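Fold these two proteins, one after the other.
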Amino acid sequence: MRVRALCCVILSLAAACSGRNKPETAPAPDAQYLTPYGAPTRPFSPAVRVGNMLYLSGQIGTSGATATAVVPGGIEAETKQTMENIKDVLERTGSSMDRVVKCTVMLADMREWDRMNVVYATYFPKNKPARSAIGANGLALGARVEIECWATVG
């Protein structure tokens, strides 16, 4: 009896799968790779828009045209510059800080969490985005913090 039931299951699955050459998938929404500062000088886009969602690449606390070093002053200064960089990318790509819905914070030293958080919180006085935080080893340019965000656009 068990063999017969197993055969019926196998035959049913084979019949259900027959005639399919490709898996059924919904078409992917068009992605727009945004370059608000001109042609990228690094192998990534600062932001990608898919539908009404905007996905920002991770930002660190660099300043100036060359952005070859993080700002001096420790975790507070780096967090402030990082958040200013995020704010700038958002504004240049049609969004704003009040439309951020998710952030991921990467810290070189989790013991700096509280000091980073004091600065971070000032950028979200009303709506608090969902957030994850992880300890990271070896952030770009020796940064203490890197933050990426997702936001909605109009």
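Now the second one:
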Amino acid sequence: MSESAATPFDRSRPLALRLSGSVSRPGPTGDEAEFEEATAPPGSLWERMKTDPQYAPEHLALEAIRRLGPEARDWAARIRAERPGITSDELARLAIKRFTNLARLSGAVSGATGLPGAVVDVGVLAWTQARMVLHIAAAYGLDPTSPDRATDLLVLQHVHKVAETARLALGVAAGRERASRLFAGVEDRRLAGVMLRLGVKLAQMAGIRAAKRMFAKIVPGAAVVLGTWVNSAATTDLARRARALYRATGT
């Protein structure tokens, strides 16, 4: 499958419907279109995470360095060519400003409802945050396509406390990717359990506190929109940690 086929950018269907199949809504315009182009995780990633929710953060980190790493590398090279003399700190600030603003839109434009909508919201937020971290790494001269960046993502986002356990979990997830099958035809009750586990894992990765309580209270049909302040605060905190790490280790 080509990248264009795997990535859900069919403008005739809203983001939440393309990813969760739960609602319908007019197509995006303006800032919403920019948000979708910048942040929507590919559909194939959603399928892997639903199949294997226990390792959802690891699957997301692996996919991020594959799909978003080259973009971050090229962005840093382009800005440096356009603005000779720009410092690494200035370059990092550009990335942080853009992706913090995009994080504020997470949830507000998905158009989803209930449990599937909440999972879409936190998944998009976690994907946006991963993209920001890779851009910050590139700003400080590190290779955003390196497997080390996947390890960094999991430690920076507090999925794992140390790099050693993060690398081990990434290895397990990579093996499960190769061996997995896309799940289909599951019963509604089983699907709800999968979505609940996936939502909790992604919310924890995105820095959303009290994830278990938040998802436990969700019922089908209830409107769920993560607060822009919550998204912004979690993303800003992650940016601070990423800058500290890459400023110390970058070139």
